[in-house]
Design brief:
Helix content: 25-40%
Number of domains: 2
Oligomer: single chain
Structural class: alpha+beta
CATH class of the largest domain: Alpha Beta
CATH architecture of the largest domain: 2-Layer Sandwich
Number of strands: 11
Number of helices: 8
Radius of gyration: 20 Å
CATH topology of the largest domain: Formiminotransferase-cyclodeaminase, Chain B, domain 1
Largest sheet: 7 strands, mixed
Strand content: 15-25%
Mean pLDDT: 92
Order of helices and strands: EEHEEHEHEHHEEHEEHEH
Shape: globular
Length: 306
């Protein structure tokens, strides 16, 4: 009985395509199935999605970290996306024949081995969180490497800010920290808007939309939302994390975004999914459009003849 796990490491490099391609080669040679690569110049971040047996998944993370160890320096890293580590976030998601509880135990052991091997301080989040305020790691990560480094050098630092695993130093001088944990399937979804001169205060309007839909502002449960300006594309981006994709109505969320966009006269240029989307989410979207249909993936046939 094969145990299958997904991992989606977020790495603070989105501009060096040669390095990104080499990381992909490292992953593929580690005996796992690389499903998706997403990288972005403005965020300066890459996201790799792969699945495999637990031991191979853990070994792949070791191989990635070993490879990038002397190739990423956060003191020289710039990007619009918040980050506090070179290999910033390492999520694990059970796919087949393993429970959240059992995977959480294995990931906890992995976190200690990761620190012992690389001396990068670790924060546990998600199901591995040691404190309630760390189930979501965004409050600490959003401080960014520079601010977190400054705070962690203070001898009177609040214990709530200290990593779960560290020795003499609370943060690595160049590689920062790492957030490790088991989480539910997440959907990362971006809505990009045209930066038209006819429409003033686009960023202000998008921040208002983000406030209306994110859970922390009494919006929609399981939704995180931030606004970025993508200089290389001259677009504004409403970036969403839907934290429990299997039990959150994506169709409702997107309709709300369209409603608010129309209200503020904002033109959507395109949308993008970062990583993969759960099949159940796709089924829910299609069924909403088809209205009480019997759609399921058994209804799909792929034609390869053009």
């Amino acid at each position: 009985m094969d145990i299958i796990v997904e991992s989606v490491p977020n790495i603070s490099e989105g501009r060096n395509k040669e390095l990104i391609n080499t990381i992909a080669n490292v992953i593929e040679k580690s005996g796992v199935n690389l499903l998706d690569i997403h990288f972005d110049w403005d965020h300066n971040r890459s996201v790799f999605t792969f699945i495999g047996q637990t031991d191979k998944i853990f070994n792949t993370i070791f191989n990635i970290t070993e490879f990038i160890y002397d190739k990423i320096d956060l003191t020289k890293h710039k990007g619009v996306h918040p980050r506090s580590g070179a290999i910033d976030v390492i999520p694990f998601i059970p796919v087949k024949n393993i429970s959240y509880q059992d995977l959480t135990v294995l990931v906890n052991e992995f976190g200690y081995k990761f620190f012992e091997r690389f001396n990068i301080p670790v924060y546990f989040y998600g199901f591995n969180a040691t404190k309630t305020n760390r189930i979501k790691m965004n409050k600490i990560r959003n401080l960014n490497f520079e601010k977190l480094k400054e705070l962690l050098k203070n001898n009177n630092i609040d214990n709530d800010l200290k990593p779960d695993i560290y020795k003499d130093k609370l943060i690595h001088e160049k590689l920062g920290v790492c957030f490790i944990g088991v989480r539910k399937p997440l959907l990362a979804f971006n809505v990009n808007y045209l930066n038209t001169y006819q429409n003033e205060n686009i960023e202000k309007k998008l921040n208002e939309i983000a406030k209306k839909i994110r859970e922390s502002s009494n919006g929609i449960k399981n939704v995180q939302a931030k606004v970025f300006f993508l200089e290389s594309k001259n677009l504004f981006q409403l970036s969403l994390n839907i934290l429990d994709a299997l039990n959150t109505d994506f169709y409702f969320i997107f309709n709300k975004i369209q409603e608010y966009s129309n209200k503020f006269n904002l033109k959507i240029a395109n949308t993008e999914i970062v990583g993969l989307i759960p099949s159940k989410t796709v089924e829910n979207i299609v069924n909403n459009y088809l209205i009480n249909s019997n759609f399921g993936f058994k209804k799909i046939i792929e034609f390869q003849v053009e």
